[in-house]
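Extended Data, record Thymidine kinase
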Amino acid sequence: MPELVFFSGTMDCGKSTLALQIEHNRSARGLQGMIYTRNDRAGTGKLSSRLGLVTDSVEAGEGFDFYAHIVAHLSAGGRADYVIADEAQFLDPGQVDQLARIVDDLELDVFAFGITTDFRTKLFPGSQRLVELADRIEVLQVEALCWCGARATHNARTVGGQMVVEGAQVVVGDVNQPETVVGYEVLCRRHHRRRLTSAAARAAALSPDVLPVDPDSVGDPVSGLSAAE
């Protein structure tokens, strides 16, 4: 039976790489897929991975109708054996409903890839609808790591290396960006709650520890007597 499958995870955990791998495996067996994405780091009409892999795609912008596009493609004599939708967190709920309709009415597998929550730990509307409708949800097993080495579970937005928790939900950016621009960093829950990015942690490590001690009350390290004595 065809399925709507939602592959979810944080940034930098290999979602787009897996999408490209699925495309490669299926096309190698003679199947033809329709590939969609939105706001990819490589630009309009591209699906790219941080490993350097890239392929052409259809840009599914605001107001794009997946179901109508597939039907028009098939009606014109085109072929479609499956659908890949990357950056699915940016889709609106109605567009996710269209993906589900493709599965149910056209009997095509749909593989959607996206981040579950935004930089404020709030569900993206598209991801929320996918959780509600998907036949299967797969959490990617390639774990992104926080700067502390723990499993990264949250996406942090940074400006100047400092985490921010206010602003528009969608601001396109990437991990490992210069600290002078808007970027993103994956963190474990503890450090996301503490707003402690790698840059903030480095700054804290370099800061001298100053103890609030009155020098007149410090005892002699040998005799143990204080200066007042």
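Summary. Residues 88 and 114 are 5 Å apart (CA to CA).
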